Design the sequence.
């Protein structure tokens, strides 16, 4: 079974940076599509970025140019480098994994979330 554990959230000033990590377990995790989602209070969850098993990436418009998604350690660790943070980036950030990127929004596997606060 796949398990996901996020870390790296925190409080940062406007314009600052944070690096989120998601450690994934599972023998075939390297073949999974993995991504980051976020949900702010009172708002719907939205995808931030994802990366597939071939390391092809896709970003939400608001993330382009500021956020970078990558995988490390034999693809078992998902990274989200966030730069030039804005107050509107404040949210709970979740890591997700699913075999197909097209199904990532309804992924079976989710982490517990890590809070990002920008002020």
Sequence:
């Amino acid at each position: 079974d796949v398990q996901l554990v996020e870390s790296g959230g925190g409080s940062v000033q406007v314009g600052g940076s944070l690096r989120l990590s998601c450690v994934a377990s599972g023998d075939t995790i390297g073949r999974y599509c993995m991504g980051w989602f976020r949900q702010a209070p009172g708002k719907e969850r939205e995808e931030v970025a994802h990366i597939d098993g071939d390391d092809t990436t896709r970003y939400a418009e608001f993330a382009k140019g500021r956020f970078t998604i990558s995988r490390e350690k034999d693809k078992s660790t998902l990274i989200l480098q966030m730069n030039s943070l804005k107050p509107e980036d404040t949210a709970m950030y979740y890591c997700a994994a699913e075999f197909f990127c097209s199904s990532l929004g309804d992924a079976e596997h989710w982490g517990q979330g890590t809070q990002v606060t920008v002020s």
About this structure: The mean pLDDT is 95. The first strand starts at residue 3 and ends at 7. The radius of gyration is 13 Å.
